Amino acid sequence: MAQPRLKDIADALGISVATVSNALGQKGRVSVELADRIRIEAESQGYAPGGPGRALRTGRSGMVGMVVPDLTNPLFPRMAQALERECASAGYDMLIADSHGDSSAQDAAILRLVRRGAEGIVLIPRRGTRIADIPTPLAVIDTPSTHRNDSSADHFQGGTAIVAHLTGLGHRKLLLLGESARSPVQTDRIAGMQRQRCEIVAEEEVQPLLADLQRRGRCGERLDA
User: Fold this and answer.
1) DSSP labels for the chain?
2) Residue 94 φ/ψ, nearest 5 degrees
3) Do 67 and 53 meet the contact criterion of CB atoms below 8 Å apart?
């Protein structure tokens, strides 16, 4: 069933849309008796003020958007849940869009959120994304090497910690399983692994390798090499 409009209320009472808007918005000159009739009619039709109309009147939508690259990745729903909790505590609603790892879909999702009046957008970008300037505040969660990044894990430090821990256990040939060698996350992590390797290697050689899961057929070859 369609959401009742101001026009539906106005037609039912034989008055103008402007009068209905003024009464429900508690502005303008509307008699107490007529305002009560309008409110009763609005309630009977199930009219709920908000959405685009509220945004037009107040300049605020009360909505924050989030764009993620893959909702099937267990990490991103947990991040979305945490963000939704914070939004709710501050009185905001949240809309989530999945770009499915496609840059065009990501751009389209951001544009939809802007058009719907999002007061802010949180973006976890697709790999290799070039983020365009938009009129809406944008927070980017990725790696420090990502343009316009606002929040990230320290993947470089993570790489150094991985090597320090594993070599401390006596391991000397390390394999990092990652989605793609082009991923900034993997690039930062490998750089940290290489830095730690240079610091701890004396006579023994530590060899961190990256197995690209997008080229699974060659993974076994690299392990056997």
Assistant:
1) -PPP-HHHHHHHHT--HHHHHHHHTT-SS--HHHHHHHHHHHHHHT----HHHHHHHHS---EEEEEES-TTSTHHHHHHHHHHHHHHHTT-EEEEEE-TT-HHHHHHHHHHHHHTT-SEEEE-PPTT--PPP-SS-EEEEE-TTSTTEEEE--HHHHHHHHHHHHHHTT--EEEEEES-TT-HHHHHHHHHHHHHHHHH-SSSPPEEEEEEGGGGGGHHHHHH-
2) -135, 140
3) no
* AA letter at 3: Q
pTM above 0.85, yes or no: no
Tens of pLDDT, residue by residue over 135-175, are 889 998 876 666 666 677 788 888 899 888 988 898 877 77
Pick out the chain residues at pLDDT < 50: 202-204, 206, 213, 216-225
Topology, domain 155-224: Rossmann fold (3.40.50)
**Rounded CA Rg of the chain:** 27
The reply to whether 155-224 shares the fold of 6-49 is no
Residue with tokens 């320090």: 164
Q: Write the single-letter amino acid at 90.
A: A
Is 3.40.1620 the CATH classification of the domain at 6-49?
no
Q: Cα separation of 78 and 50, whole Å?
A: 28
Considering the domain delimited by 63-151, tell me its CATH architecture. 3-Layer(aba) Sandwich (3.40)
